[in-house]
Amino acid sequence: MFTLIRQTPVPAFGLQVFEYRHQATEARHIHLQLPGELHAFDLSFRTLPSDEGGVAHILEHCVLEGSRRFPVPGMFHKRSSSSFSAFSNAQTGRDQTSYLFHTPLRKDFDQLLEMYLDACFFPLLAPETFAQEGHRLEPVDSTNPVSPLQISGVVFNEMKANYANPVSRVVRGLLAALYPGTPYALDSGGNPAVIPGLGYEQFLAFHRRYYCPANARFHYCGPLAPEELQERLEELVLGPLSLTPGTPAPRPGWSEWAPKPLEVDLPFPYSGQGAERMGLGVLAWRLGRNAGLEDELICQVLMNWLGGSSEAPLVRLILESGMGGPLTTLLNVGLEPLLLLGAQGMECAAMDANLDRLQAELERVADAPLDPALLRALTDQLLLEQRNTEDEDAGPGAFPMLLIDRVREAGRLEQDPLERLNPALVLERLRGRLCDPYFMRAELRARVLEPSGLVRLRARPDEGLGLREAEAERALLAGREASLDAAARAGLAQAARRLQLHREDHSRDGMIPLLHLDDVDRGLVRDPLESFPAPGLLLRAQSTATNGLCHLDLEVEVPPCSAEAARAAHWLGYLPEFGYGDLSHEQADLRRRSLGAPLEADYQLFSDARDADRLQGSLRLRGHCAADLASDYAEMMRLTLEAARLDDDARWQQFLRSRATDWRRNAAGPQVHSHLWQALGAAQSRQGWLQNQVHGFPGLRRLWEILGLEETPALLEQIRTRGQVAARAPRQALLAADPAVLDGVRSRLEADWSHEAAPVDAPLPEWREERAPRAWLTDSTVCYAGISWRGLPRAHPDWPLLRVAAGLLESQYLHTRIREQGGAYGAFAQSANGCFHCSTYRDPRLRESLEDLRGVWDWLQSAEIPARKVEEAALASLKGLLLAQSPVARVRLRLERERQWLDQELLEQNIRRLRAVDLDELRAVARAAVDPASESVVVVCAREKLRQDDLQGFLEEEI
Questions:
Q1: CA 97 to CA 210: how far, in whole Å?
Q2: CA 879 to CA 421: how far, in whole Å?
Q3: Model-level pTM?
């Protein structure tokens, strides 16, 4: 039985909020009843690590690998391939682990709910699962007990990749320095040097302690009545566990502030060129215990004031002084916000001087007059974002999950969820203080300029660190090998074989409840999108509920006539960082902030759905504002396009160097897999080649060449030329707004955005097929490998079948060979832009994985593949075409498809083909469509790995 604590409406979002406590177990349930078709669910536990063995992270991986009711190895993976969920996953935080999903289908929701609940509270947690997902010691050759030993495991390899990222190391170093003796000083994801020491019994005990009803919070957002969900919770979990509810985890303890600034020096692995300019210097402040949402919002405005844009004082100093790329963020650590302000790409010899300059700038800011207009703009921006119900970049279901994120955070902090659901109410209450210069300067002094709670961190590249860490792992292995007798070695080989049998056990797969194609009976969503042609402008208008906001897109064609021209057009994405007309960039920044959300711009390359070599380049400006400011906001967008002050060479130099530094850091970290995909497409189509030249490793290298050879004047002239083309080009525009204001805003846009357009024409850029194997060298101790082949254009009638083939290869072959057996974090297959490619992600292997990737087509033609698996792959492909999105996101997707000459009729043809696919036809299409001679191989790895695996014939490229 549940007891209702409170029921409250939130009219701003059409919500009814119900808060419940379960009488027998003390479990909490927060139910957000929201009209619509999406069901979003989250189950969270407070989880507090006591060391860096990664137990919370490994457990998060393992609970979804088989449960009491569904004793199926790989349960989560096998079910997710047939789900219509846009997101179904789990995540480990510093003090909390969450399991979450959302789906538009009620049957899918019921099945996933049953499986998630059973997995979390009644998991099997077999030793084999712990070995696969966590860590294991095994012979390299399981058939030969005396072969060398290796450490493997999915989480182990995932965290080795994380530790190759300098910023990840910096954050970990800061937390260890600031919060000693608390869980926040520990890496809850796991330190690769410590993970191998985690024991199986310790792992089981962690689950018993934290995965209990009294420590659980259930969150739901969607149309279900709370009683309907509670009936299922009672039946599946809370009733059976009512006699053993466990106890809630305590709120973590806290550490006192250091009385004076802490000095921290931290190395990170780096062996590339220019190491002397790859330093990372950071000032970090503990901003005080978070007493409630008011505190958090004050800290957010402080962050936006000091480092929230290129015109914020500390970011401006970093850019203008050439320190490097700004690194600014606000982290929530336990009950305390943590402010980070610094730069990456510093000269190592000047790091102390640069940190001194940043601190001096803070003192200057605290003493200088503060413009109330800036504070009003910062506060209004924050208010606007709380009202925004659109986040199409986050994918379908983003808004319900955003609401759940807010109430989950309230529970973690033991605060009122109603305040976090609608922070606009708190912001309105705070507005007077947030807009008061005296109040905010006092907050700056009290929270930031006091010497306690401050860390000065200097992270320097260490060319030998990666080698020393690899040597430490080899020494660990050597020590273990020396301690093993023949019987122990035979036991390891037997454990490896048991794990292989565990993976290959499909005897109970039929116990998993599944969706079928017939369960998805909806057609394409057809939004009423009206067109209004005007001179030089095609305006599209969408009438929809937007919570009083107007969403505006302005888009122009900037064709890619050469690789250099496309790179220059890419930099037009920085238009909102420049002044326009008579306004300097400082004045323009304040104007944009005062009108609405920050203006975004980007440059994209599209290929024809019928011919991947036919290209279009598109510059898009996008933003949103309150309805009463729509005309002024639209005028600002137009002037940003037409009158941007692109002749500000000094400012360009700042952004070019900052972007180059940031790009180089990410190239070996968070963005490496994206770069790999771009490199794989480069050999298969003109669009893929050009995309790689602009956004991939060659684009990064070319930017460093330009900066090093002082060729920026030529690049800047190209940028200005592309900007002039954009200002004269025909325009497409999108307006999405509430019905009450739509017509008035539309009429103004037609008048203001129409112009005398110049026709745009340009030759196609030349390209060459580069099929020689390439190895991009990095410091990561794990690898990324891929192989691509020429595929089919998207408009080809057989293209949907290649999508199904990709789904089958990914779920049935690559997952087993690359992830389960090889220990990689994951493996992928994709058919896009005339290219078919397969790749690995955070992979300890290289040569063996390339062999597995080359085997995909033989497997597809010869393996015994049940018809049910073909249907699941078709269902996954169908999901990508039909899945519900927010109204504005659906319209933007529709316009994007139009740019690729992909019309509704073709989409519906694809859907019909997916519903009728069979294995024989799929195999025939794969044989005919994929040419083995078009193979292209790309790897991203350490140079030592190439040598170790004796891989020959690769063109080695420095990142």
A1: 10
A2: 30
A3: 0.92
